[in-house]
Amino acid sequence: MVFREAIERDARDLLVLADRVTIETGDDPFDGTLQRDIAALGSDHLAQERRLEAAALTLRRAWLKAAHRPADATLKSPSDGDLARVPCGDSLQFGYERALDVSLLEDRGATYALPPAGWTSDMVIFRSGQAALATVLQFVASTWGNRRPLSVAHAGAYFETTALLEAWPRRNFRPTLPTVVSADLVIGEPVWCNGCFVATRRLPRARHVLLIDTTMVGPACDLGPWLRAAGDDCDLAIAFSSGLKLDQAGLELANVGIARVLVRDGSSRHSESAGRLRELRGLMATGLTLDELSALTAPWFLDRAYADHYVAAIFANNRELAQAIGCCSPVFGPHCHPSLTSNADAPFCAVQLREPSPSRYRRLVEIAEQQSDRRGLLLTKGGSFGFRGHRFELIEPMDGRGHSFLRLAMGWRDGHSCRGIGELFSELANHKSFEALDRAYVR
Question: pTM to 2 decimals?
Answer without folding.
Answer: 0.94
